[in-house]
Write a structure and sequence with these properties.
252 residues, 10 helices, 13 strands, Udp-n-acetylmuramoylalanyl-d-glutamate--2,6- Diaminopimelate Ligase, Chain: A, domain 1, six-stranded mixed β-sheet, alpha/beta, elongated, five-stranded mixed β-sheet
Length: 252
């Protein structure tokens, strides 16, 4: 079965409510390919490796969290950017990308999906009155020692996380996928026992240590694999088309 590209994009935009969210890049259709879509390949980032895999998989569209055209970047289509766009345009493949809308979504969002993967009970956003509040708060099924929880994270994500061990068991935790280490101060103010994200900065470690909170950096790529898969499955089931998630490993 196939679906019109325009219908697919319209539904993805509607489902994620992408138009209401200000972002650092355009959300939705970034590169237009053939008008009919039978097979979607999803992945975290529209890297050359993912595009090559999508070509091999005979995809009509590629769906990612990290696409192109970020604010402040060089707009010239040269080098790596030229090669990526040439691959898409040369094979008539569309590129759909959703950044913050995919982080925030209450069903297929990266943060909700990561919480489910880790078996966390989701309490809600860290800032309930803020529609752009991206950090979630919740709890493990039972209190866990920081080292035990870090091992659990590593087993689920298949990647050993960086652990800054706090001085108390983890009963309540805040988390945000990707490069959200800057939210640790808000997590500390909220009184949680631990904060988990993808990346770490030098000052993050000091904030965690000096406030007695556990901090876990589980990898930007590793924490953001699940939202795009969930969105791909939703679209495939909605329209009766094929979907394949392709993971291009990234240690960062």
């Amino acid at each position: 079965m196939t679906i019109e590209l325009s219908v697919l994009v319209e539904e993805a935009d509607r489902f994620l409510d992408a138009a209401r969210i200000q972002d650092y890049c355009p959300n939705g259709l970034q590169v237009q390919g053939r008008p009919q879509v039978r097979r979607i390949v999803s992945g975290v980032t529209a890297s050359q490796a993912l595009l090559d895999a999508a070509v091999a998989a005979e995809a009509d569209a590629v769906l990612v969290h990290h696409g192109y055209f970020w604010k402040g970047e060089n707009p010239c289509v040269v080098g790596m950017k030229q090669r990526r766009l040439k691959t898409l345009l040369g094979h008539d493949i569309s590129l759909l990308a959703y950044h913050l809308p995919l982080d925030l979504h209450p069903e297929v969002g990266n943060n909700v999906q990561l919480g489910r993967q880790l078996g966390l009970t989701i309490e809600g956003p860290l800032e309930p009155g803020n529609p752009r509040s991206i950090v979630l708060v919740g709890a493990p099924a039972e209190p866990m020692a920081p080292a035990d929880f870090a091992r659990h994270v590593g087993a689920v994500l298949g990647r050993e996380p960086l652990l800054v061990e706090g001085d108390r068991p983890i009963r309540r935790i805040a988390w945000c996928t990707g490069g959200a280490q800057g939210y640790i101060d808000q997590a500390i103010a909220a009184g949680v026992d631990a904060y988990l994200t993808g990346e770490v900065s030098e000052q993050t470690v000091h904030s965690a240590r000096e406030n007695g909170i556990t901090f876990i950096a589980a990898g930007h790529h590793a924490t953001e694999r699940y939202g795009v898969q969930a969105l791909g499955r939703y679209l495939a089931e909605r329209f009766g088309i094929e979907h394949q998630f392709i993971d291009c490993p990234n240690p960062a």
